[in-house]
Specification:
- By secondary structure, this protein is of the alpha/beta class.
- The chain has a single domain, classed as Rossmann fold.
- Helix content is 43%, strand content 14%.
- It is built from seven helices and five strands.
- Strands 2-1-3-4-5 form a five-stranded parallel β-sheet, with helices on both faces.
- Strand 1, helix 1 and strand 2 form a beta-alpha-beta unit.
- The longest helix has 16 residues.
- The protein starts with a strand and ends with a helix.
């Protein structure tokens, strides 16, 4: 199974970073599936000198599952919304996890109405509202190895498996 891990880098600082959550998710999903799992994350998957945008698109398209970590920063990132757009267009299974409340809702507000890309991304971001998400907001400040986090990941990964 191949999974694309979509998140805003702004949300990844230590000590409670999303990369640590991805590592726990990776272990538990592998246990639930009983097989090796390939999870693509830009931080470790993009190598120096590659055409990064094309590689991200290829990785999304090659995935069986698209896990997106929803935060205000996610909806402020054109690249996150572009990744989501690729996943929607290719009909990849989308699994949103609400990591931090989004007071402005599940939508982007990129400016420049004459910019066709901004208009498209803003419209596509609102598609996220159609997907049921899992709520991680009350657990985000817990240690990634805590029982509560593992219970959450067990539940999520069992459904994906």
């Amino acid at each position: 199974m191949k999974v694309f891990w979509s998140y805003a880098r702004r949300d990844d600082p230590k000590p409670f970073n999303l990369s640590a959550l991805k590592e726990q998710f990776h272990l538990i999903l592998g246990q639930c599936k009983g097989e090796d799992i390939d999870i693509f994350q830009d931080k470790t998957g993009l190598k120096w000198g590659v055409k990064w945008r094309k590689m991200l698109e290829s990785e999304v398209i090659a995935s069986n599952a698209f896990v997106c970590i929803l935060t205000p920063s996610y909806f402020s990132s054109k690249m996150c919304i572009q990744e989501f757009t690729w996943a929607v267009e290719k009909k990849i299974h989308i699994y949103p996890i609400l990591y931090r409340e989004c007071p402005k809702g599940f939508k982007s507000q990129f400016t420049g109405r004459k910019d066709k890309l901004n208009v498209k991304l803003n419209a596509n971001s609102e598609i996220m509202q159609e997907y049921q998400y899992k709520d991680f907001t009350q657990l985000r400040n817990l240690d990634r190895t805590s029982q509560e986090v593992h219970d959450f990941l067990d539940s999520v990964c069992s459904e994906i498996a």
